[in-house]
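User: quick one - fold this with FE2/S2 (inorganic) cluster bound?
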Amino acid sequence: MRLKFTLNNQVLVLEADPSMRAIDLLRERCGLTGPKEGCGTGECGACAVWINGETRLSCLMLAAQLQGQSVVTIEGVNQESPARMHLDQMHPDQLHPVQEAFVNCGAVQCGYCTPGMVMTAAQLLACEPAPSRERIREALSGNLCRCTGYHKIVDAVEAAARVMAGETP
Ligand code: FES
Ligand code: FES
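Assistant: Sure. Structure tokens for the protein plus FE2/S2 (inorganic) cluster:
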């Protein structure tokens, strides 16, 4: 099947088996290894990407479902964000505020959950610029982390919200 979709702001056309999983297409055919496979059954959130601005689990999608869609992975989150109004002056290599906050707050240990966490958190902040800690925990409840105990992840999302609201870190 000839697939055509936008991937991290670039139009991509390729021949692919429409029945392969989207995560496999992204990792193996597109070379984007940011989306991780944890469970493969929709329970850990490590494979989260944005499809048309919504967070979706790429392990539960087929390649054919990407047809005509706009796909953003962790590799492109800093450049293609619903919170773009805050990102217009960003250098292409500059991290998204959520990525930066994860680093600064010590919210990354092994890092396996981090791409999915960042995608989910960045989408939350795009829709809800000032969520409570309880709301952050709720929004991230589909993303599992074995290392951090979640506290620093919630700290990071709060810190990113402040930066995106224009406060100095
Ligand atoms: S790998 Fe997709 S939800 Fe776990
Ligand atoms: S940092 Fe290791 S799973 Fe979250």
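One thing worth noting: The longest strand covers residues 2-7.
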